């Protein structure tokens, strides 16, 4: 029924609308917060979520190889400047809090 999360015991034969990552669950309001490139109008028609394993992480790599074929939010190969664009040097001379004398 509406408002309940059901688990299917076997693989369903259904049209796949796309991939998404559940980033949060609000049981009080009955909401799932999903990161997905699927359009909201299409997502509103979705009535089933299928659980995937670690192999689900491969589509962002595909997006980096051919970004014109796959639309994946928050993934880019073009970040060459700005925060997080380069590797950071480890600072091994810092002590953890609570270990200072």
Automatic annotation (TrEMBL):
Every copy of the NOL9 C-terminal domain together lies at 13-54
Q: Which Pfam families match?
A: NOL9_C (PF25467)
Q: Which domain of life is it from?
A: Eukaryota
The name on file for this protein is: NOL9 C-terminal domain-containing protein
């Amino acid at each position: 029924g509406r408002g309940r999360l059901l688990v299917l015991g076997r693989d369903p034969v259904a049209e796949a609308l796309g991939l998404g990552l559940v980033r949060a669950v609000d049981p009080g309001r009955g909401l799932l917060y999903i990161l997905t490139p699927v359009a909201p109008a299409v997502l509103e028609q979705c009535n089933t979520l299928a659980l995937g394993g670690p192999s689900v992480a491969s589509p962002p790599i595909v997006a980096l190889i051919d970004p014109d074929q796959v639309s994946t939010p928050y993934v880019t190969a073009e970040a060459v400047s700005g925060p997080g664009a380069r590797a950071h040097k480890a600072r091994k001379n810092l002590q953890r809090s609570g270990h200072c004398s």
